[in-house]
Design goal:
464 residues, alpha/beta, seven-stranded mixed sheet, four-stranded antiparallel sheet, 13 strands
Length: 464
């Protein structure tokens, strides 16, 4: 699932939006004359000069990079099927074959048997949207007594679930996690009502990298004859190999009785091209509620497996290529590299006075906070040193998602972090300057609608 869907205040370009929005540049128009491919590509390359430096390991979200050789494979595979459209699987049986191959491989990786089925989607948001739609429509058919449907989920679950609830007319019931940042099963049990559609757990929850207690949530769901969706968009292609690399990983997948559906992103730790994800169901009967069909259109019989109509063949092809090229050996190599790098960073951050790791992360996703110097001022200082920082709230923290690109620069990051902490400690006035002041203000506004209005204004300015 893309972290770009977080609050636009999580990156510096958004923070500068109100200032740049004051200018009124001439609106671009369609060129009167055709331009050469060389000219067009040169301008596009120039546009990239201010983008985040992900290839240098300077970002900790948004891009998942293994090697340049693998990236070239994705380009080649995507280009090979650039024009093909997965809207009609009968016209392009190659895409249908690749999609069903991918779903079968993902199902096997996540503890599923031959009954587990699924679909490829455009990303984690669409996968979660479809899971919500599936359970809503299942209830419409099998539980007509539900008139005001609810989904039950921890506050640490991804906001795309709230987005799906907003679109589909489902009320999200949010339960704060326990002190370990994992889902509070007892509190969720108390929140179940006759209107509950399904429960949600994360593997891991993005903010702190911890896996929710899936066996306990599954048992709770089963005891009330309710479905449980496990959002493994981040961990679906990481946790199985972290476990094989010798690290402890709690049970989280279809091997747990009571887990009825899962989502896992291919374009994250599956190292596929954007945008590619999967949503899987324990039975074909359950997946039927995901599909949309219409037989009354003059244009012919209409059926759609996912939200999208036209579906880019390139994303399917690149995902198939990634899984086959890396194989189990490649993913195990990547997991070992990530966990080694994660351990270096966790130990290094914990050794810096005033900084603390939040919870006990289960994979290469984690966050750290501060019990001393202002963390948002530290974030500002890190960005001055060329790092793209992901800020979080409740509690205030800095988030990192580790990929192989971070192995060569882990020590550099720690050195810059030590310098940033020392600088902020020596200059406490920095807490009232720059984005640190803005975050400090936003986090103390008691009315969430005012913060949301600020976010909306930022989005409006960003896309003008």
């Amino acid at each position: 699932m893309s972290q770009a869907e977080q609050s636009p205040t999580s990156n510096r370009s958004a923070e500068s939006a109100p200032a740049t929005a004051a200018a009124t540049p001439t609106r671009p128009t369609l060129p009167a004359q055709s331009r050469t491919p060389k000219d067009v590509l040169a301008e596009m390359q120039a546009m990239r000069s201010r983008d985040a430096r992900w290839h240098e390991g300077r970002t900790f979200s948004l891009v998942y990079h293994d090697t340049d050789e693998h990236l070239q494979l994705l380009r080649d595979a995507y280009s090979l099927f650039l024009a093909e459209n997965a809207l009609n699987p009968m016209a392009f049986p190659s895409l249908r074959r690749m999609e069903t191959d991918v779903i079968a491989m993902v199902a096997g990786l996540l503890g599923g048997d031959d009954q587990v089925v699924g679909s490829m989607t455009s990303g984690g948001t669409e996968s979660l949207f479809l899971a919500t739609k599936t359970y809503r429509d299942q209830a419409r058919k099998e539980r007509p007594q539900i008139t005001a449907p609810e989904m039950l989920l921890p506050t640490t679950a991804h906001p795309a679930l709230l987005k799906s609830a907003h679109y589909l007319g489902v009320k999200p019931v949010l339960i704060p996690p326990g002190p370990d940042f994992r889902a509070d099963v007892a509190a969720m049990a108390q929140a179940i009502t006759p209107q509950t559609l399904f429960l949600v757990g994360s593997a891991p929850a993005y903010p702190h990298g911890v896996v929710d207690p899936i066996p306990e949530l599954a048992a709770l769901a089963k005891s009330h004859s309710l479905p449980l969706h496990v959002d493994a968009c981040v961990g679906g292609f990481s946790l199985p190999f972290v476990r094989k690399a010798g690290y402890p990983v709690p049970p989280f997948d279809f091997s747990v009785p009571g887990v009825t559906s899962m989502s896992a992103d291919l374009h994250k730790y599956g190292f596929a091209a954007k945008g590619a994800s999967t949503v899987l169901y324990r039975t074909p009967e359950l997946r039927r509620h995901q599909f949309y069909v219409y037989s009354g259109w003059p244009g012919g019989l209409f059926g759609s497996a996912t939200v999208l109509g036209t579906r880019p063949g390139g994303a399917i092809a690149a995902a198939w290529a990634s899984l086959n090229a890396l194989g189990e050996a490649g993913f195990l190599r990547i997991a070992s590299t990530i966990m080694n790098t994660t351990r270096i960073l966790l130990d290094g951050i914990a050794s810096i006075a005033g900084l603390v790791i939040l919870g006990k992360p289960d994979c290469g996703v984690f966050a750290y906070g501060s019990v001393g110097p202002d963390l948002m001022a530290i974030a500002d200082q890190m960005e001055e040193r060329g790092w793209h920082i992901d800020r979080q709230q409740f509690p205030t923290s800095i988030h990192l998602t580790i990929t192989p690109a971070h192995a060569p620069i882990a020590e550099r990051y720690l050195a810059d972090l030590r310098d940033a902490v020392a600088h902020v400690t020596a200059h406490p006035e920095l807490s009232s300057e720059g984005t640190a002041a803005m975050y400090g203000m936003l986090m103390h506004i008691p009315d969430p609608s005012m913060v949301e209005d600020f976010i909306l204004s930022n989005f409006d300015a960003l896309y003008r």
